[in-house]
Amino acid sequence: MTTVLVAGATGSLGSLIVRNLLDRGADVRALVRQSSVDKLVAHPNLTPCVGDLADGADALRHHVDGVEVVVSAVQGGPEVIIDGQRELLRAAERAGVHRMIPSDFSINLFGYGYGVNILSDLRRVFADSFATSTVARTSVAVGAFPEYFLGAIHEVLDPAAGTFSVWGDGTRPIDITTIPDTAAFTAAIALDPRTAGREVHVVGERLSMLELRNEVEAASGRRWDLVRRGTVRDLRAEVVRRQFAASSLVEYVALQYQVAMFDGTASLRDVRNADYPDVVPTSVAAYLAGAGAAHFTVPETARRQGEWPTAV
Ligand SMILES: NC(=O)c1ccc[n+]([C@@H]2O[C@H](COP(=O)([O-])OP(=O)(O)OC[C@H]3O[C@@H](n4cnc5c(N)ncnc54)[C@H](OP(=O)(O)O)[C@@H]3O)[C@@H](O)[C@H]2O)c1
Q1: Ligand 1 pocket: which of 13, 86, 201 to mutate (most atoms <8 Å of CB)?
Q2: Which molecular function terms from Gene Ontology are attached (predicted)?
Q3: pTM exceeding the 0.90 threshold for the entire prediction
Q4: Atom of ligand 1 at shortest distance to CA of 257?
């Protein structure tokens, strides 16, 4: 039985990774902060490990003793994504862990460079930590979670105005994978030793913004007026304008993702779904007919200013 430690085990994605790993017969250790222990669901093969990445490598070390794979699904600013994950990596090195999946789970952030996206930059800095590490890095890229991409932060759907907004011509395919499907793929990848030292791309569905609008109209049974907001060049200019004007990164970071999605640099390459045939991802149509129907009516609660987004 493979032993996997999951950091961020109480989060939206991490909790589902834990469930999928248990379903696949893994022995799972859940790194969980004291304040969040109650969020864990009991299971005979699940061991709660109370700790915080901020505790440092020495304190984290005993949690990773005997662990083969570490999966991180934490979220936060540089103190978590860079400093905290580095402490976990140092602990994993000392314990002889084979592989670590960092908390990337994004568009193909290694398809573009520094300065395009502030949250990608944190993950890129952490990825460099593996250059001198004995632990092999396995990065998982999935494209956009529709749970966020169709939420208020991305400014695509506006249910009150009945509009669907597009930057660029709307014809370039974009990569979309739901949170449950990302968790299912990640559990399979975590238990697949072939992924050591690789960036693994998997996807739910690829479709253009114009096709996505058709899916939204079909699922909602209503018309969504197409708003063409400008070219991708205009989008880049809007990001820069907001960076100077914004009081919080929440006001521009979603558009930073869209720059890389719509100029194609973040497109997934060498998609490996075929390596995991038992993971059958949800189509966008099925997502919109189920949980995704909430996008048509329920506005998301605005985030507190200055808070690092839990996701984009
Ligand atoms: N591709 C996309 O469109 C997309 C969208 C959203 C998210 N994501 C990515 O998915 C990943 C997971 O995001 P999420 O939305 O699932 O995050 P989330 O729900 O906010 O969960 C974050 C988890 O990290 C834990 N955590 C935070 N700081 C910690 C620390 N110092 N020590 C230990 N644990 C800590 C939290 O614990 P507590 O329960 O104690 O707070 C929680 O379990 C992130 O890499 C995110 O960028 C991608």
Answers
A1: 13
A2: oxidoreductase activity
A3: yes
A4: 3
CA of 44 to the centre of ligand 1 (A): 24
Judge contact between 4 and 190, C-beta under 8 A: yes
- Examine residue 304 and state whether it is found in any structural domain, yes or no: no
Q: For 236-253, what is each residue's pLDDT tens digit?
A: 999 999 999 999 999 999
DSSP-derived secondary structure letter, 310: S
Rounded Cα distance between 51 and 36, Å, is: 10
- Mark whether 123 and 33 lie in a shared domain: yes
Structural domain boundaries, residue 292: 146-176+204-267+276-296
Q: Which amino acid residue places its CA nearest to atom 31 of ligand 1?
A: 53
Q: What is the pLDDT of residues 179-220, one digit of tens each?
A: 999 999 999 999 999 999 999 999 999 999 999 999 999 999
Report whether residue 144 contacts ligand 1, using a CB cutoff of 6 Å.
yes
- Clarify whether residues 232 and 291 are in a common domain: yes
DSSP lists the bridge partners of residue 307 as none
Instruction: Kindly state whether residues 168 and 99 are assigned to the same domain.
Output: no
